[in-house]
Amino acid sequence: MSIRIRELVSFFDERIPRSLSCEWDNDGVMVCVDKEVPVRRIMFTLDVTVGALEYADEHGCDTVISHHPLIFRPISSISPENVSSAAAIYAVKHGINVLSYHTRLDALPVYGVNDTLADLFGLCECMPFGPEGEVIGRIGTLKKRISLKECCKEIKQKLSSGALIVTDSGREVERIAVLGGDGKDFLKSAVLSGADTFVTGRCSYNADVDAETYGINVVEAGHFNTEYPVLASVEKLISSQFAGFEFVYYKHDATKAV
Questions:
Q1: Which structural domain, as residue segments, surrounds residue 203?
Q2: Are residues 200 and 242 in the same domain?
């Protein structure tokens, strides 16, 4: 099957609607070289860097789909000195379309970042949680209560995390709140939702200190590690509607556990 980029964009706008995005976010079409060109090979990446685009070009990809927006803040000028501009310039020069789905993908049911995490951890009876206007996290229950040490072992294995940052409140783990990426603003909501454990990518020192007072465990598994799994879910979403695409993955985490 051959479809044009505008058809793929329309599909995403229907299945991952902009109404799911947080007000402060900028996601959707980042670069569209020609809306009538056919889509044949898609590359998935968490971040759109020049390095990622070079990889896409080397592997013959005409379209890049990312989680983090290529253009997040307003750009006052287009020049190679600006990181986002340099990537956009490369994409245009090499005829690569770029689509980014950020907080709307966080909130998306089934195929989204946090439902993907909940499914990966085997959580049951999941529900959304989060502060007003940003109810994009998921909270659910394990089939059996486990120790925090056992929980951390499972998380490291399932997310391929080299190291975890953990706040141990002394509670066993049964009801887990998950939020891929930066979760510091979701800690209080996780507490109010009845979670005994909050799993996120990154929190903050102050939030970790507060967690002890709240009586909730916090597990920081890495921003990249908690969001990268959603890319495979997006491939499944595309394949549920279209056939014949070739898919490539660019897996590059700028941060390392040493």
A1: 108-221
A2: no
Q: What confidence tens digit (pLDDT) does each residue in 90-126 have? A: 999 999 999 999 999 999 999 999 999 999 999 999 9
> Which residues does 235 contact at the CB level (< 8 Å), separation at least 6?
44, 247
Are residues 148 and 177 located together in one domain of the fold? Answer: yes
pLDDT-derived band at 2 (thresholds 50, 70, 90) equals: confident
Contact call for residues 121 and 155 (beta carbons, < 8 A): yes
Q: What are phi and psi of 179, to 5 degrees?
A: -150, 105
Structure-token pair, residue 78: 């287009």
The pLDDT tens digits of the residues spanning 130-154 come to 999 899 999 999 999 999 999 999 9
Domain presence at residue 256: no
Residue recorded with tokens 């793929």: 8
Closest by CA to 178, choosing from 126, 134, 213, 132, is 126
